[in-house]
Amino acid sequence: MNEARTGEVIYKKYCANCHQGSIPRSPVLGKQADWTDRVEKGRAALIENVRVGIPPEMPKMGSCRNCTDEELGNAVDYMLAALEEEETEEETE
């Protein structure tokens, strides 16, 4: 069995185009204000949103038709970790 791709790999290939600010209402990677309401729903809900999509903006599976559930989770974890990095940077300023 193949090893799951990392969240960073999945993010850069399938998620970055939308989550860098090019799509209105798409939460920007690392931008706390964009993610607050979403994070409150929990990790499982975020993964499910990726899996089933959120029409019309968020495509099913985030356009990664060959991603496993583990890989989708890895991508979500990568994006959540970016929020933690933003908090740490704000605390040190």
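Above is the first protein from milestone M3; the second protein from the same milestone is given next.
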Amino acid sequence: MRYNRILLKLSGESLMGEQSYGISPAMLEQYVKDVKEVVGKGVQVAIVIGGGNIFRGLSGASKGMDRVQGDYMGMLATLINSLALQAELEKQGVRTELLGGLAIEPICKEMSRRRAQEAMKEGRVVIIGGGTGNPFFTTDTASTLRAIEIEADVILKGTRVDGVYTADPEKDPTATKYKTLTFAEALGKKLKIMDLTAFALCEENHLPIYVFDMNRPGNLLKVVAGEEIGTLVSD
């Protein structure tokens, strides 16, 4: 395997499938099958998932809601998705450990590097919900922070697009895909891969980001095994 310890970042919207809101059981099942396949190869896995399919703090703030309260609501939304992911993983026979930026007994313990690393060494998938536990930070930043804490080899950013393009491929048919990018190139071209705080953390800590299409079954294993099916952003 090319990567032995990964942080898989999923968007909350990806769990919607064909729905306009909430969690698609079919999409959840597919994602978990892919994760189970990778765990079966001995790869240590941590997952951070967003909450945009349920609630976004920024969208609430844009409609007049207090930003801090809205961000905490968004953190709780990520925990709802994390619980759904945990339930499906356990259903498919994969052992898990749910940790959170917000400790909510009896749902999850507070995230700590030691807890996460020990759980992964024991073969459990670590799901980290609740963002960073602080308002004003996105789940992009949370996933980067957690990846650095657990000493992951890479952040695998699972999207519905098969990499980073010169423009939005869903809007521009002439857009071309990058196989590799440096952090400096991505910033210079103003490519929206992650928010700037997350991106700066990755660059500073020499943590590569791999963007790929998570909606195609089997792609997660291909990426972990080293197949070049997406875009690698690194030093």
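Note on the second protein: The chain is about 35% helix and 20% strand.
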